[in-house]
């Protein structure tokens, strides 16, 4: 085969591949990309996990000793705060910094039997199953006895 024909075919193939790469990488809409993160705007979160207000989740309720949480805030055992599983927390991640997670500061209602309590999400629970929730001692005592350690509960975003 003629070397000029081979060169021409390779050149055309390279140009086609170049244009395909540019087309795939180009944004579809100029408003599509978010250029900065605003922690007060939860709509900027990763949409692979979007909390649905009022949808009930069932899981185990446990308690833990607080301190510096994944959201970057210090809390103590008397605060009405909680941690959700790493699965739920990480799916909402924005930029790799847990302090920017749009779930931080979100309110959750926890219900066990006839007792319910509202808490604020401030932390990530490494050992929790997907819909388990970890709370402070004071929150757990509102819903059960500390000696129980682990009880089934329902919770939802408010």
From TrEMBL:
Keyword Signal in record: yes
Signal peptide: 1-25
Keyword Signal attributed: yes
InterPro entries: Expansin_CellWall, RlpA-like_sf
Keywords associated with the record: Signal
PANTHER family on file: PTHR31836, SRCR DOMAIN-CONTAINING PROTEIN-RELATED
Protein name as annotated: RlpA-like protein double-psi beta-barrel domain-containing protein
Source organism: Penicillium vulpinum
